[in-house]
Every structure is written in structure tokens, then in C-alpha cells.
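This follows on from our talk about sequence and fold. Go ahead and set the record down below:
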Amino acid sequence: MIYLDSAATSLYKPEGVQLAVLDAINHMASPGRGSHAPAMAAAECCYNCREQLSRLFHVPSPEQVVFTFNATHGLNIAIRSLVRPGGRVLVSGWEHNAVTRPLHALGAELLVAAGELFSPEEFLRQAAAKLPRAEAVVCTHVSNVFGYVLPIGELAELCRRAGKPLIIDASQSAGVLDLDFAALGAEFVAMPGHKGLMGPQGTGVLLCKNSASPLLYGGSGSESMLQDMPEFLPDRLEAGTHNVAGIAGLSAALRYLLEHGTASVRARERELLELLAGGLAEAEGLRLFYAGAAALQSGVLSVLPEHMSCEALGEALDRAGIAVRSGLHCAPLAHRSAGTAATGTVRFSVSPFNTPRQLDRAVAECKKILGRG
């Protein structure tokens, strides 16, 4: 099988991730739950992972790095910490349901800054016009559907000047694009561990500028006499047993990223994306959502077949041994912004561990299927 669905979950992992998970299962208990060797090994593992994340994302203190189950978990913490019920929130037109559903649950009024796909200037113009009426801002760094890289640095500057708190969904950018938490000044940045960071599923990270409101309440391994959660991070937001095996695997993946650098990952993915787009552009009856400019698109390419459904193309590729994703990708707002809500798209997403040969085969199979259609 050729796996081209890394925007959903990274299947290809750096060497050592699987062994780190197995070692944690066999030798580590839970941090903060004892002074014996297995508990202390778990505590050291978790701290080391926080420290790696603080270095990768320029977080002032490892204590500001909170472990979550996934990006959705972190976004729910961040949103419920900053958005009051019925509040007015500025979002981009490219958000995932991990942002829009929590806001809907709070009855928030959404101010949407969209503009055409791959048009950052128009997005910023709309954001600047609507920002004065917003109480908070939530924005994805990269669209999970189209790979559109939003101008998050410029948006962060607008928020700083206006005194508006910013939450960044870095689900598609963490591990691929440079992300300087301290320089951005965002209140929160949420990310999964299992996508660009190439760790195991069931891991996530929330970077916190200040404290936050707990989403879960329970044991923290500290301040046990208190019946509220501790006031200090990360304990305030980490109720219950940690996913120590997942964190160990994430730490191994982070070693790879810190050694190679996100710039090399981005360059590799860009090389593969250009190869993929160049090949698919030759296919008949296929519309590509391709920016051309490297700064505007990450390693995600959506396509729309003209003479068959997206689901039919995705299923045919699956039968040919090519794993992609078809449909709305849990992001109906993004599809409405791009005009593809009625059809969805077929999404190809690459990993630094994909090869040109794999992409050549995927292009050939796609052309063969479209020719039959």
C-alpha cells in the first residue's frame, strides 16, 4: 500500500518511535504516582518530552506545555477558557469541526474571514475589518483540506495591536512549518502528536501562555488535599493518568524533528507535492487546488474529478493500493469557502517518508481510473 493520508494520521514514523512505545509499556508506570523506579522513569520521560516541545516551538518554560489526547482536546480547553457562552469570535473560513463545534456548543457568534483560496491578503483584509467586533480569535495555521498556509504571523500581530486573545490550531503545521510560540504571542496553540509530529495516536499538545480553565477534573499527582485542580501548569489541565507510552513515542519522534529541523521536512514535502501536482495536472477531467507558490501550501493537495464522484475515485484508488481521503474532511466551513461543499474533494497528503516512486505510481493509477471513468 502507498499511504498518502498523512494529514489525517502519520503512518510512517521515524525510526525508534515503536521501540520507545514498547519500552514505556514494559518499564514505565505513571508520573507523580509514586517514588519507585517505574513512576520516576515515567516522570522523566514526560518532562523530557515537554522540554523537547518547548525547544521546538520556543516556549519559555516546559511547564507551559500541556499534554492532551489530541488537538481537539486542546482546542476545547482553549476555547472554553477564553470564549463566554454567546460570545463573538473571529475565525477563518478554513476551520475544522474541532474549532467550529466547540464554538457552536457555546452558542458563539462567528465572524468569518475567508476570501478566495490561497489569497492571504484578502483574508487579512477581512480579518482586520471584523476584528474590532470580536472578543477572541481562533484560526487554523494550515487548512487540513487544501494545505492553504494562512498568514498566522500577520494575524497574530493584528491581534496584539487590538488586544484580542488568539488561539491557533496548528494541527497541520506543527512539525512541518516553523512555529515560534513566544514571538506569536498567542494565548494557546493546540496540536496533535500523530500528524506532522509523527508520534502515536492518542497524543496531543496545548501550548499555554497563561493558565486556563480545566476541562477535566480528577487526580493530578499533586495538591491531593485540594478539591479543585491545582492552580499551576501543567497539573491544572492534566487530570488522570497520562498516555505515557504515547508520550514516549512522541518524544522519539521529536528527537528526529529536532535533529533534522522542520525546514528539511517542509522542503521534502514541497518537493513531493510539486511532483504529485505536476503529474496529476496531466490527468484528464481533474481539477487541482494547487497554489504553485511554496509559501502558500503545505504537503496537502485536494483534487476534484469532473466525471465521477470523489468517493468513487477514492474507493478506486484504495482498490489499487493507494490510501487517500475523500469527502468533507470534517471541515464543511472550508469546503463552503472553496465552493466544494456539494462534492467534497479527494485529498492527497504526503509525508517526508514518501518517495517519488510512490507518487509516480499514485499518479499513474489515478490517470488509469479517470480514463476508465
User: Anything to note?
Assistant: The chain has two domains: 2-11+262-372, 17-260. The first strand starts at residue 2 and ends at 3. The mean pLDDT is 97.
